[in-house]
Amino acid sequence: MTTGPDAYDETEQTDEFLCDVEEEYIPKVGMTFQAVAEVGLLYKEYAKRAGFSTKIRNSNRCKETKEVINQLITCNREGKWTSEAPSVEKTNPTCGANCPTRIYAHAIKMTRMWHISKVVLHHSHPCFPKQAQMLS
């Protein structure tokens, strides 16, 4: 193992950003809710305090009842897209930052409660909590 000024420290070389938010607002695997709207409200409040906006990436519905049975909510900068406009003309060239931040929740059939089963909190871009009032 190399030590000294030429040593490589893996913790300093990262392209991931983790937002500093009070513990009570951080979504966690295993949390349960009465309705899918409550899951969305928790994640929106977390996102607002962390300084990013969210979008519902995917929802699936029951074939018989048409009720939502699971939902994936992601950072608004999730995904990557290509534009046909030259990069000089783009108004927001970093919109799609391939951000992995997301929560996945699903309804438990027997209890009809909503359960968070996946949480990813690190971003591929910096967040700006002081500008949260501008986020929808």
Automatic annotation (TrEMBL):
<protein>
    <recommendedName>
        <fullName>FAR1 domain-containing protein</fullName>
    </recommendedName>
</protein>
<dbReference type="InterPro" id="IPR004330">
    <property type="entry name" value="FAR1_DNA_bnd_dom"/>
</dbReference>
<dbReference type="Pfam" id="PF03101">
    <property type="entry name" value="FAR1"/>
</dbReference>
<feature type="domain" description="FAR1">
    <location>
        <begin position="42"/>
        <end position="129"/>
    </location>
</feature>
